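>> Question from a student workshop board

For tomorrow's exercise we were told to take the sequence and the ligand below, predict the bound structure, and bring the output to class. My setup keeps failing. Could a helper post the expected result so I can at least see what it should look like? The ligand is zinc ion.
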Amino acid sequence: MEYNIGDIVRTKKQHPCGSKLWEITRVGVDFKLKCLGCSHVIMLERHKALKMITKRIEKEEGRN
Ligand SMILES: [Zn+2]
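>> Workshop helper replied:
Here is what the output should look like for this input. Compare the format with yours to find the bug.
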C-alpha cells in the first residue's frame, strides 16, 4: 500500500499516551509519524513503518 503525507494510519501497538492513530508527516526511505494523541513524532525506516501500520483511516474518522 502506498502512503502519502497527511494520511492518518492506525498501528498495531499503541503509543504510551493511549493513541493508535498517527499522521504521516514524511514518506521516503524513512517515514515520520506524528501521534494524534500527544503530537510526539517518531521516525522509522520504511520497512518498519510498513510493518507497524495496520490500516489507513479516513481523515474525518481519524481526527473526529
Ligand atoms: Zn502519543
